Amino acid sequence: MEVINTVGRRKAAVARVYVKPGKGDITINRKSLETYFPLEILQFQVRQPLMATGTVGSYDVTINLDGGGIKGQAEAARMGIARALCEVDAEHRSALKKAGFLTRDSREVERKKPGQPGARRKFQFSKR
After folding, report:
1. In what order do the strands lie in the sheet with 31-32?
2. Could you count the other beta carbons within 10 Å of the beta carbon of residue 90?
3. CATH code (residue 31)
4. E strands within 25-124?
């Protein structure tokens, strides 16, 4: 099996994921997973697709992350890994789909409108 690459997106974050057979190393922007995401919950989110399919020690994962915040980046990486595992073995698709890792969360930040301090907020109304 050669290297499989996929893309995962969430908010403004884009994750380019490369999966190849190996011993389970996850590298993000040339750093280890624990260094890039010091929070345990974000490390768990990135590993979720591998745990759902039972392939934790089977593949080396390299991820290039760009844009967004740490939460969006972790979820983008999760989606990219899930898509790559589907390409590796089609039998993983049902477990990943059921867990919701293949669904793109399309919610984006609403733009700020002119004449307002935010997207929906208006300046305080003064009658006189």
Report:
1. 4-10, 13-21, 59-66, 26-28, 31-32
2. 9
3. 3.30.230.10
4. 26-28, 31-32, 59-66
Task: Write out pLDDT tens, residues 30-81.
Answer: 999 999 999 999 999 999 999 999 999 899 999 999 999 999 999 999 999 9
Phi, psi of 109 (to 5 degrees): -70, 130
Residues 95 and 85 sit within 8 Å (Cβ to Cβ): no
* Cβ 92 vs Cβ 53: under 8 Å: yes
Unique residue bearing structure tokens 């996929």: 6
pLDDT at 1 over 80: no
The answer to the question of residue 10 being in a domain is yes
Ramachandran quadrant class, 67 (left: phi over 0; alpha: psi -120 to 50; beta: rest): left
Residue 77 lies in a domain: yes
Residue 83 placed within a domain: yes
Q: What is the tally of structural domains in the chain?
A: 1
